[in-house]
Write a structure and sequence with these properties.
Mean pLDDT: 97
Oligomer: single chain
Largest sheet: 9 strands, antiparallel
CATH topology of the largest domain: Vanillyl-alcohol Oxidase, Chain A, domain 3
Number of domains: 3
Number of strands: 22
Strand content: 15-25%
Number of helices: 15
Structural class: alpha+beta
Shape: globular
CATH architecture of the largest domain: 3-Layer(aba) Sandwich
Length: 475
């Protein structure tokens, strides 16, 4: 490799000669992949098939030393770069066009301390990696709903899952993080050291450095839990959501739940007559005493006569994989979200009306019940400001044909725009492509936004880490 063309942080092309490239390659233990290589296309692909970016080189880091070398190389030459954890970010921020990808996906080790109930995981680990290691100890970290999701991106923008009402967001359970900063230092951020940075990492995103490992508080869960999964005809959707509203107002915090306006999947577990039919689904997980679970979830199963009911007691690790088949690698995804001010009758009627216009049976409108532990965390304790929201609506467009992408993106944006009158702020793990720029960030972080900019100015004053939902430094 004699020289390559790359983009700098201002988006302009520059040439890197053989000497600086060879010096960099000598400092890195992991693979470095260039555009002309056969393995390049596999290395640049991410979960969302919509993302088709072509970086100039990909550094598959073997450990923190490779991350430090990569950050130093980028800084010294003014290179555009992105940081990849699990590669599951719907906006595709794990990769960049013409720059360098600092790929942490091979850094997947997980260590559990069952006595302290803590988990230390490298940034490339997925939910499945963490769940696999915590299960033998009857422990779980509050994570997301799809097991292939990477833990680092999930954590840095919050992290919603079945344990949200009982134990909070993933970021609420973060104890410390090891992070490589823009000046090439590896530091630990926690409540004891670099406290401002630690505050920013608990929901503030990837603008502050390359997180290489995360330490979490784990909690006793399972090994079995009760899961509700009844499906009702879409003709019952409005009354079902009114029922869901009343039920969740009285539900114990051990119950995490959402209601989904969807179409029954075409799977063997679904009767042939129901497959593809528009439905409203109650998905709920009770993580309290197993003997109480069936009784707790019964009202969700008896709201009406379900067209199919997949409820039952399951291992928690299997619950974490329950939705995996619906979100395969390489399908096309475009998701946006809003925190609802209420789930009143007008909001319900509008959500159901939009659900009837979904351009794909794979697309859903999901209404997450919040509250519990999530809502008791003060709004300024983490950057995640919308703690008083009772519900979050996610507009998840999912489809298989690339030629149909404009239709699905337009539908999602239209629904999002219409639903803004019932809401305030977005969940930044479901941001579309972040098209709204700083307005999206201000809506999510509210009064915490200026503090995030100040932390950014302290740790990355030249905005080296910009391949993300970027928070620019103050001043």
């Amino acid at each position: 490799m004699k020289e390559i063309t790359m983009k700098n942080i201002r988006g302009k092309e520059i040439f890197l000669g053989e000497e600086p490239l060879q010096r960099f390659l000598a400092e890195v233990r992991g693979e470095v992949i260039f555009e002309h290589e056969d393995r390049y296309d596999d290395a640049r692909r991410v979960w969302n098939g919509m993302i088709d970016k072509r970086p100039a080189l990909i550094v598959r880091c073997a450990g923190p030393a490779d991350v430090i070398a990569s950050v130093n190389f980028a800084r010294e030459h003014g290179l555009l770069f992105s940081v990849r954890g699990g590669g599951h970010n719907v906006a595709g921020n794990a990769v960049c066009d013409g720059g360098m990808v600092i790929d942490l996906s091979g850094m997947k080790s997980v260590h559990v301390d069952p006595d302290r109930r803590t988990v230390r995981a490298q940034a490339g680990a997925t939910l499945a990696d963490v769940d696999h290691e915590t299960r033998p100890f009857g422990l779980a970290v509050p994570l997301g709903l799809v097991s292939a999701t990477g833990i680092s991106g999930l954590t840095l923008h919050g992290g919603m899952g079945w344990l949200l009402r009982k134990h909070g967001l993933t970021c609420d359970n973060l104890l410390s993080a090891d992070i490589v900063t823009a000046d090439g230092r590896l530091i630990k951020a926690s409540n004891e050291e670099h406290r401002g940075l630690f505050w920013a990492l608990r929901g503030g995103g990837g603008s502050f450095g390359a997180v290489v490992s995360l330490e979490y508080q784990a909690h006793p869960v399972g090994p079995e839990v009760w899961m509700a999964a009844p499906m009702y005809s879409m003709s019952k959707a409005e009354s079902a959501l009114r029922f869901f509203r009343g039920f969740m107002a009285r539900a114990p915090e051990d119950l995490g739940a959402l209601a989904s306006l969807w179409s029954a999947p075409v799977e063997e577990t679904i009767p042939e007559s129901v497959r593809g039919a528009p439905v409203v689904v109650f998905l709920a997980v009770y993580s309290g005493p197993l003997e109480k679970g069936e009784e707790i979830i019964r009202p969700l199963r008896e709201f009406d006569t379900p067209v199919v009911d997949l409820s039952g007691a399951r291992r928690f690790v299997d619950v974490q994989k329950f939705l995996d088949a619906d979100y395969p690698d390489g399908m096309y995804y475009y998701w946006k979200s809003l925190y609802l001010n209420d789930l009143d009758d007008e909001t319900i009627k509008t959500l159901v009306a939009h659900a009837t216009t979904r351009p794909s049976p794979l697309t859903s409108i999901d209404i997450w019940a919040l509250g519990g532990f999530f809502s008791r965390v003060p709004a300024d304790e983490t950057p995640f400001a919308r703690r008083n929201a009772p519900y979050m609506a996610a507009f998840e467009s999912n489809w298989k044909n690339a030629l149909e992408s404009p239709v699905h993106v337009e539908w999602t944006r239209r629904v999002y725009k219409d639903m803004e009158r019932f809401s305030r702020g977005s969940y930044l793990n479901f941001p579309g492509f972040g098209e709204e720029g700083e307005e999206l960030l201000k809506g999510a972080y509210e009064s915490n936004y200026e503090r995030l900019k100040a932390v950014k100015a302290e740790y990355d004053p030249h905005n080296l880490f910009r391949g993300n939902l970027n928070i620019r430094p103050a001043g």
